[in-house]
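Submission sheet (multi-component)
Chains listed below:
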Amino acid sequence: MSLKKLSSEFTKGLIKENPVLGLMLGLCSVLAVSTEVKNAIGMGCAMTFVILGSNILVSLLRKTIPQKVRIPVFLIVIGSFTTIVDLVMNAYAPAIHKNLGIFIPLIVVNCIIIARAEAFAVKNTVLNSIIDALGMGFGYTLVLFVIATIREISGNGTFLGVKLFTGFNPVLVMMLPPGAFITIGLLMAVLRVFKK
Amino acid sequence: MKETIKLGKYLFIICAVAGATLAATNYFTTKKIASQKLEAENDALKEVLPAAFCFEEKNNFPKNGFDEKNNIVGYVLKVIAAGYSGEISALVGLDRNFRVTGVKILSQNETPGLGSKISEKNFLSQFIGKFSEKVLLKKDGGEIDGITSATISSRAITDAIRKNIDEFKKTVK
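Outcome: structure written.
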């Protein structure tokens, strides 16, 4: 496997096939957790871990998984990794766990992960799947980070909880779901310009 | 038929492995989660009633807070309010004159960035030192400044705190 191919497997997750802006997957959790940068980073890490674990396992099992039951198998694998993240986060990062709340268990049904298992890991080698997972996870985290930065600064006047300006009147709509849609739309437009 | 059994076997193995892994993870984290929860609970009690040295050991509220000589220095109430989206639960500390010594939000599902600000210090510190008559939004004639664009959440928690204190007073007197 050439290095060039590997690096393109990684970078496709960042821009060309970015899970959020390119494939438009997993928008629900993006809307919900991108109000604060801290939560966005926590969610991104949790997500990356689950996608990495599920991609590795699915790719390892790819020759044995019967075609007919592949979706239940993917779900069990993804569900297990999500529960592990949920428990470990609850034990070692209770503050972030509390903030992310229901969105950690909901990683199970996050379409990014099952899409990568179905579209990539089940057809590719372990190494490729790892790179793919890292690219996708990193791409997701990056977009979440950018959206959360824009929303937290404009909607709350803070970055990572630190107050940036005095006498600034926050744009409240940015904190609400419409703010997320506006931000995602604008980012997509910007990305489109770069793609061309 | 043969294929069904084969598929069943495969799923069984996968599920068994997944189950075992989760059992192991659960085994290693339960203790930590439980102690984390206990610690958080104790910290929360101390936060709303800083004058207390230790607290009554029971599972329900209200709890009495004691100083080093085992005298009652105050009480901690648990308040449940019906917020904008779901329940808000909070701890309220009172001194022996039923003056608020602190409020802490334990859980809430209010709109992030708006109603969720009820758990911020800026809002909660307003309650400290007030008697229940004054625990009312300014709009309603009291002394608590509600959160901009989150009147429902602010009013819900403020009113619930006032009512709980008033009720608690009756049971003690």
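Remark: The mean pLDDT of chain B is 87.
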